Amino acid sequence: MTINRQPIQYKGEELDPERGPGLGCFRFQLAVLVFLIVLTPLTVAWQWPTWLSTVLLFVVIALLLVAGQTIIFLLRLVAADRRTRRRPLGSATKTVGELDDDARPVSPAPGPPAEAPSDEGPVRQ
Predict the structure, then answer these.
(1) Does residue 21 contact residue 70 with C-beta atoms inside 8 Å?
(2) How far apart are CA 6 and CA 14, in angstroms?
(3) Contact criterion met (CB below 8 Å) for 37 and 56
(4) For residues 64 and 59, what is the distance between their CA atoms, to the nearest angstrom?
(5) Which residue has the higher pLDDT, 84 or 69?
(6) Which residue of 11, 24, 49, 97 has the lowest C-beta tally within 10 Å?
């Protein structure tokens, strides 16, 4: 088994976890998003100005977009990290995939093709 130790490429450059948003940034985005999702309908119930409710609604939509992009970036980092190491760091045992590969039977060597059945012979009707 060979392990891919080459750096993961993203847009022609190495994927650097220090360059993008982190987990703290994502948690902050989610906290603000939850607060605004609760506040926006309450502004309508409390009869705040319509323009304010509209602005809050558009802010919620924009924040959903930003939080979605952040989670995609963080998932790419996790996937890139997992691709660089196939075996868990603290484990000396084989992974499930390695066990499956060992249990898979080896296909027989290709031999001469079997003869095609003949059209001649008894036919049952």
Answers:
(1) yes
(2) 9
(3) no
(4) 9
(5) 69
(6) 11
8 Å CB contact between 25 and 70: yes
SS3 labels along the chain:
CCCCCCCCEECCEECCCCCCCCHHHHHHHHHHHHHHHHHHHHHHHCCCCHHHHHHHHHHHHHHHHHHHHHHHHHHHHHHHHHHHCCCCCCCCCCCHHHHHHHHCCCCCCCCCCCCCCCCCCCCCC
Q: Are 74 and 26 in contact (CB under 8 A)?
A: yes
Q: Is the pLDDT of residue 105 over 60?
A: yes
Question: Shortest CA distance to 25 belongs to which of 71, 79, 90, 76?
Answer: 71
